[in-house]
Amino acid sequence: MDSSPVVWRARGGVPVTAGMRYARAVIAGSTESRGFRRLLGEPGWQGLREAGVLWKYRKGERLLRQGFRGTSVLALVAGRVKVVQSTQDGKEALIALRGAGDLVGEIAAPHNGERTASVQAVDSCEAVRLEWGALQSSLGKLSDSLLREYMALKLAQAGPYKLRLVHFKPERKIARLVLELAALADPSIADPNRVPFTQQEIADSLGIRTSTVAEHVKRLRAKGALVERGHLVLGDREALHQAAGV
After folding, report:
1. In CATH, what class is 34-156?
2. Alpha-carbon dihedral of residues 120, 190, 193, 214, nearest 10 degrees?
3. Predicted confidence band at 160 (pLDDT cuts at 50, 70, 90)?
4. Transmembrane region positions (predicted)?
5. Which of 69, 113, 122, 236 could be 108's S-S partner, Cβ–Cβ 3.0 to 4.6 Å?
6. Are 138 and 186 a contacting pair, CB within 8 Å?
7. What is the CATH number of domain 168-244?
């Protein structure tokens, strides 16, 4: 059976995968694709939070580690994380970005399996840790259907982040990554317009050279889409959306 992602063609013949459509919805600020919290509703989300234990993580800290077994799931309540996967050459590939309202760890948890990726805090984060049984009890009769729907949405993003943007030029890739990071910023983040990645991290995430990132960041700054203040900050949102093609 072919497990490759479903592909549509946008105007101009550029392939559009389900994962790209998901990211586009996040960038556009669509609450429809902002996580398990939306599927569950506020009363259910509060019940889920009460069923687990709140953990706090520093920026850069690992919430979950690839290769480790576990039966717990984390419900993100504040901050952003990146999901990364170790490659054969010893590097790490960005798989996805997650924010408040998302679950992480739900693939391995049901059968105490090995984590297929690591989860690292982009900001100071808070997450509720629940054992798989506690999660199912909290969700009740809707447990299976809700988790299936959520996991199907996330599986649309399977594979390295850079491959989902492979058909785009560097400037569009950078603009989309920056906008997705901004869209996932919740009220706990003091400066949601600050880009939390260095240019090296942007290059690593997108699989392009640092010099290429520097060149196109300079162009985005010239358009007013980004501003340099010792770190990158979002500038003109309209210009940035135009560069991202969304």
Report:
1. mainly beta
2. -50
3. confident
4. none
5. 113
6. no
7. 1.10.10.10
